[in-house]
Amino acid sequence: MSIYLTDQVQITSITRDANFRNETLGTPFLSDAYVEEDDKITYGSDGQPIKPARKIVLPYATSIQEGDRIKIIKKNGFSVIDKDRQVKSMSQIGAFGGSHLEVLS
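^ that's the sequence the OP posted. Answer follows.
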């Protein structure tokens, strides 16, 4: 399985205390990625728009965990302005040397 990592993201790790009351932000670092965004906007039963899903594929060795913050820096080689979003879930795709992490934010 071959995925071309044409985009770049900034990942900020978050450390929480035992009571989950205090957060400490780590040093942000950059990682190559592939970003797939769903431009289709759906609406909930109350008529409010639901934010489209966004999948980010990262190299498997990337140090990231649920709750960290992720922000797109470059998309298709162009700089973009994006806000930090929290990592909701992660799953491994592929196998062995060709595996990647798929991150939902």
